[in-house]
């Protein structure tokens, strides 16, 4: 976390702290006796949005959550600039808020702590006066899982208005206690950028200490737990990543839910987490194609 704190100091006015929202917004699965909502921070790109700013009706904002197997917090400046560049150029977003939820490091930050944090961030963005239909949720890898969980929460247990859309990049949708073995048995594991020990560490840190209830498992591991959402959703995966088969299956399950507006995008030969890696591997055109389609899907 020291890297994140250091970057926030350097960012100065672009760093904002989101305080927990009203208690009733953490209802249902988020109401935990052990994990409590806490202040969480993030970085604005290119500049912060202030409450009461002019032209709020025209603001189109991406709220992006980075991955990290639930246990890592990446350098926000490097990856935040990469993500915000794409969102600005191709999705048409006027701003991106790169939001760092709490990694799972102890019992107080296990599930559902990170999900509490994404609710906190979403409530914070709306409190600034941004119109809900102009907010796009975005998350990669483990944070793609969290965005999916947030959509489920918004549909079932929250009084918050729905966002204009959501896009998840290489979401970790099959999260089990034997995540390391799951990864090693997948067909693309040998050539992908993830590792079995990292994923195993992630699940052991993230899973609640008690035996999860069926409802909790649906939030933790959305594969085979599709749900109805009124939010347009785009799911992306690379065909060369180890998660591809489970992501494709989850996308099919969501598409099959009557009333859902879900699209599945895939990029041939791409490995895990295109939105974070595209700038260094020559795949900017592929990201452009996905986000231009998303722009028309969400906002036109």
UniProtKB/TrEMBL annotation:
Signal peptide: none annotated. Residues 62-274 form the Alpha/beta hydrolase fold-3 domain. GO terms for molecular function: hydrolase activity. Keywords: Hydrolase. InterPro entries: AB_hydrolase_3, AB_hydrolase_fold, GDXG_lipolytic_enzyme. This is Alpha/beta hydrolase fold-3 domain-containing protein.
